[in-house]
Amino acid sequence: MNAIDHARRFSPFLARLIDGGRIDLTVLQSLADKVLTEADFQNFADWAGILAAQDEAELSRQLRVLRRYVVAQIMVRDLNRISGLNEVTRTITLFADFAVNTALSFADAYYRSLYGTPVGRYTGQAQYLSVVAMGKAGGYELNVSSDIDLIFVYPEAGETDGRRPRDNQEFFTKVGRKLIALLNDTTADGQVFRVDMRLRPDGDSGALVCSETALEQYLTAHGREWERYAWCKGRVVTPHENGIAPLVRPFVFRKYLDYGAYDAMRALHRQIRAEVGRKGMEDNIKLGAGGIREIEFVAQIFQMIRGGQMRALQLKGTQETLHKLAELGVMPSESVKTLLAAYRFLRDVEHRLQYWDDQQTQTLPHNPEQRQLLAESMGFADYAAFSDGLNAHRAAVSAEFENILAAPEEAPDARFAALWPQPQQGFSEETGRQLAQAGFDAQAVAGRLKTLAQSSRYRSLSPQSQPRFDALVPRLAEAAAECPRPTDTLFRLTDFIEAVSRRPSYLSFLLEYPNGLSRVARLMGQSAWMADYLRRHPALLDELLSAQAAFRQALSEQNSIGSKLTFAEEKLTNARQRKAAAEADIQTYTQQLEQMQQQKAANDTALQQAGERLNAAWQAAHGSR
After folding, report:
1. Lowest-confidence range among 136-140, 489-493, 621-625?
2. Distance in angstroms (rounded) separating the CA atoms of residues 538 and 257
3. Pair 458, 469: CB distance under 8 Å
4. Which of 12, 4, 2, 6 shows the shortest CA–CA distance to 354?
5. Residue 131: helix, strand or coil by DSSP?
6. Backbone φ and ψ of 314, nearest 5°
7. For the chain, what percent of residues have pLDDT higher than 70?
8. Residue 583's pLDDT is what?
9. Taking a C-beta distance cutoff of 8 angstroms, is the pair 167, 158 a contact?
10. What span, in angstroms and rounded, lies between the C-alpha atoms of 134 and 361?
11. Orientation angle between helical segments 486-499 and 528-536, nearest 10 degrees
12. SS3 string of 331-358?
């Protein structure tokens, strides 16, 4: 059975293309023998001629025919295990980039012919639309049946310079709509990609295109936590000069350690889990427990927390990010290996589910025939064995995910839970007694907390920060109670959290990690100067909070250096041994040479004496005559 016949067993969609004559087997075979590149897409049709003729119908048709061959090529190579996951996702993503740019070139040229060139109001330069690929398209991780999430951005306001001028907003809106139609519309030849524009500023209610200035203002004033997650993978796929990356980077990657991202990720994950449960999607290998989304969450949570300080983490792909987390010592290598193995397995399953009928699905089948073929395509004898393997990977992912994104640690002692929010009439008698027994000046603490509750800073806290602040105050008392001067320590701690209360990240960290809070309390309890310095320079806390990560990284580097040193020492020892052996050989050879020279000298002497005797004998014989 050849590769194409083998692949069609697992894809009724591919079989229909072949049997319906919509695929030329000779062309498909030539494509299946190699890894596709942009050059193959360029050579598929006379794109330059189509663009020059402004033949929209032919452009639409050729893009859809090319998509048919690209998907078929991917199926044949993947189902025969000729290619791996990285080739599959990169091939379809490269094709998406090519399709977007080809459609954009047509749309842009079409409207320039009507309205002229859009010109920037401030720079006076020609303007071009930039297309940002989000999600899997941004990370070179597309599925064969993925939609593509796009955002359209142009450099600056202005208008076109033609006889029928249009402002840049209107011009690029028209360009964007035509680009979408060229890819998204379903024709007799099918569809190129479903285009999803909901990730743009203000979603469906927002403008289809926006200027770079408008994007920056939106992210600064209205950008939400889930949008940081989305923009983490944002990648500009068009070649025109733009200033998008510098304005997006500080929104996604904060300069400080952003532990507030934990809460955002938990909230997003709870929403997804609730939706999965409501719709009965437990068999969804992307959104269900232990699925692909949880692996992506693990990679991106560390990117959002540490990416501002570790620029090496500012990556697009899930796999490359996980590798980098292990390399930097942020995650244990064994955990990363577990997640990577599961990710590759789950993505392979996802592709085989989509190969079946070219549908964007991640749900396991119920049809017995499809189940058996799915198992065989994954290398298992039957569906039961496949399910065992799948469930093992999902269980491992769930364990890693829960370990990383588990709820905050519980406070070890709840004896000060009634301390805050403080009633206006003061503490109860029991609370005052607990404070006194712990070494606090209860009256002074009551006065300080009352002042804090009435302060303008506390009353103006955001809805996001106030619950964290309220939960933290009793824990401050708990941490201060372990210090030699608990009242002073508590006052310094409350001064500190009041100063940093507008940075929810710090409040989140101290809630997430009681051990970190205890460390800060000890520092402040030992030194009023240190407490005041931290209050005035809270960014210094980043260094304290990252100490554990730095230690892990240093330990990893030390182990690496130790391994290299051991290897070097072994080589040096071997070299020394070889040198010693060589020196011994030289000494032996020297002694042998000396002996040979002595023997030669002895032989020369003996030969000379023999010659002298022979000469004397000859002289005697001839002389006697």
Report:
1. 621-625
2. 12
3. yes
4. 12
5. strand
6. -85, 70
7. 81
8. 60
9. yes
10. 19
11. 10
12. CCHHHHHHHHHHHHHHHHHHHHHHHHHC
Q: Which two tokens stand for residue 58?
A: 């032919």
Instruction: Read off the pLDDT of residues 231-277 as tens digits, 9 standing for 90 and up.
Output: 999 999 999 999 999 999 999 998 766 666 666 667 776 777 677 67
**71 and 358 in contact (C-beta within 8 Å)?**
yes
The first and second tokens of residue 181, run together, are 């139609």
Q: Quick one: which of 50, 34, 157 has its CA closest to 110?
A: 50
Yes or no: say if 349 and 88 are a contact pair by the CB < 8 Å rule: no
| Tokens found for residue 589 | 């050879």
Give the three-state DSSP class for 284.
strand
The bridge status of strand 148-154 relative to strand 195-196 is parallel
Neighbouring C-beta atoms of residue 436, cutoff 10 Å? 13
Residues contacting 132, CB < 8 A, separation 6+: 138, 150, 151, 152, 153, 234, 235, 236, 237, 244
**pTM, full prediction:** 0.75
151: β partners: 132
Partners of 210 in the β-ladder: 153
Which of helix, strand or coil describes residue 580? helix
- Tallying the residues shown for the chain, one arrives at 625
Question: β-strands 195-196, 130-134: how paired?
Answer: unpaired
Residue 171 · residue 160 · CB < 8 Å: yes
Angle between helices 333-357 and 12-19 (to 10 degrees): 40
Instruction: Give the whole-angstrom CA distance, residue 467 versus residue 545.
Output: 22
CA 525/CA 490 separation, integer angstroms: 8
Average pLDDT score, the chain: 86
Q: Is 569 exposed, middle or buried (0-12, 13-18, 19+ CB in 10 A)?
A: exposed
Nearest C-alpha neighbor of 517 from the set 496, 487, 539, 488: 496
Q: How far is CA 25 from CA 43, 74, 501, in A?
A: 18, 14, 66
Specify the residue for token string 């360029």. Answer: 42
Residue 568: both structure tokens together: 């070097």
For the chain, state the CA radius of gyration.
37
| Secondary structure of 392-423 in HEC code, one letter for each residue | HHHHHHHHHHHHHHCCCCCCCCCCCHHHCCCC
Burial of 361 (0-12, 13-18, 19+ CB in 10 A): middle
Q: Which of 188, 178, 164, 148 is nearest to 51 (CA)?
A: 178
Helix (H) or strand (E) holding 96: helix 85-115
Residues 131 and 152 sit within 8 Å (Cβ to Cβ): yes
- The CB-side HSE value for 528 (13 A sphere, CA atoms) comes to 4
Task: Using DSSP, state whether 126 is helix, strand or coil.
Answer: strand
